[in-house]
Specification:
Helix content is about 45%, strand content about 15%. It has about 425 residues and is α+β, with helices and mostly antiparallel strands. Strands 2-1-3-12-6 form a 5-stranded mixed β-sheet, sandwiched between helices. Strands 10-7-11 form a 3-stranded antiparallel β-sheet. The longest helix is centred in the N-terminal third of the chain and has 17 residues, at about 1-20.
């Protein structure tokens, strides 16, 4: 009997010692990056034999729903989320704050300093003064100009590229074509019917004016300022006063630019090169350029966007979960060969310049990219801003009145 008891105790202790800690991770699927993620998980398990990483890959559009469902069922320890969706999860208390010791650091600031300045905030891991995520990928918008149009107008793309919004407007005037009073080619264009696009452009214009559009309170308090009116009017005037933009010429500015129906647009990232190949304009006829600035404004470029990875608050071993995520995000050189930028400081800038098209425009601008608002009410705010632009363009409402209405709308959305 004593031997049987001893054997039972031995078996019990053996099962405990060999029990693996499971980390379930949800990520979006995108070849060839899936292979890198799966390989990284395999390497982590090899170095930590007491841990099992279970990866669930889902379509990007399904990420928020999949993660919410998993959180409800206590079925996820770590997950990825885009910066326009992540504030909901942080605001609703589903994410754990960063644990510095998991990174071998003594403070949050030391962890933050492992990435490019502002990278965590710009990719959606920061909310109301606290850090909840670390970057997986970061991209940004640049401006694009049709240099073939410039050459035909007698301009030199090496010398006449706009660096200020005043120059942007003047170039637009030169490149706009008309048949009588009707514009047949826009000097600039944006899809005003999809609220996200004017919203993203205004983000940069507002922050260039020194306004805080990265927080709910900052955006709300900015809307009755002279600076906000200047930024807002700069944008709407392209259609209402400057004569370089007819919103009715077409709706999709990416298609319009690709088919030569507009000479400038502001909502393209490095991915647009691939999109352009489906249209009539050739690659050598266009060029991405840095976002113009206000002459006396802040040195801020186009909006940054990307993904962070998070530890769920329900994870039992949060420090181990953060160690896994730190391991996952410590291979930027694996991603950069495919043009995928991870803003970790360990990334060799020479590699980034080699594999990111037009790195002097995109990569160098990461540090100056505008941080988008961190809000659980992102969609509602975005729609309100889009509606404020539409009122001016299509309803003959003044910039001042529309901004006043926007402040009321945002106040209602945020209960301020």
């Amino acid at each position: 009997m004593k031997n049987l008891i001893s054997l039972a105790i031995l078996i019990a202790f053996s099962s405990v010692s060999f029990a693996k800690e499971i980390i379930r991770h949800i990520h979006w699927t995108q070849p060839p990056y899936d292979e890198i993620i799966m390989g990284t998980a395999k390497d982590f398990m090899s170095e930590n034999p007491n841990v099992e990483i279970k990866i669930q890959l889902v379509a990007d559009a399904d990420m928020p729903t999949k993660v919410r469902t998993a959180l409800t069922a206590n079925g996820v320890e770590t997950f990825a989320m885009p910066n326009m969706q992540s504030p909901w999860f942080m605001a609703n208390g589903t994410t754990a704050e960063i644990i510095p010791s998991a990174f071998g650091k003594n403070s949050i600031q030391e962890v933050v300093d492992m990435w490019l300045p502002g990278a965590i905030k710009k990719t959606g891991g920061f909310y109301e003064g606290k850090y909840y995520g670390i970057p997986h990928e970061m991209s940004n918008y640049a401006a694009w100009v049709n240099i073939d149009h410039m050459k035909k107008a007698g301009l030199d793309p090496k010398k006449d590229i706009p660096t200020t919004w005043q120059e942007f407007k003047l170039l637009g005037k030169i490149l706009t074509e008309k048949n009588g009073d009707q514009i047949t080619r826009n000097g600039f264009a944006i899809n005003t019917k999809a609220a996200i696009f004017p919203f993203l452009i205004l983000h940069s214009l507002m922050q260039q004016k020194g306004l805080d559009w990265s927080s709910e309170k900052g955006l709300y308090s900015s809307l009755d300022t002279k600076e906000a009116l200047d930024a807002f009017s700069t944008f709407t005037n392209w259609a209402t006063k400057d004569g370089i933009f007819d919103p009715g010429l077409f709706e999709n500015e990416r298609e319009g630019f690709g088919n030569g129906l507009t000479s400038q647009f502001l909502t393209g990232g490095t991915w647009y090169w691939g999109v352009l190949d489906g249209y009539s304009v050739k690659r050598d006829e266009v060029m991405p350029i840095k976002y113009p600035r206000f002459k006396d404004g802040k040195n801020i470029g186009g909006v940054a966007y990307g993904y962070c990875v998070f530890v769920s608050k329900q994870a039992k071993n949060k420090e181990l979960a953060w160690k896994w995520l730190n391991y996952l995000e410590n291979r930027p050189e694996k991603y950069i060969v495919h043009g995928w930028f991870q803003p970790r400081k360990t990334l060799d800038k020479k590699l980034a310049a080699k594999y990111i098209p037009n790195y002097e425009v995109f990569g160098e601008e990461f540090e100056y990219a505008a941080a988008i608002i961190a809000s659980a009410k992102f969609a509602e705010i975005q729609d309100a801003v889009g509606a404020s632009v539409q009122r001016v363009l299509f309803e003959d409402i003044s910039n001042e009145e529309s901004l006043s209405m926007l402040k009321d709308d945002v106040g209602s959305i945020l209960d301020m």
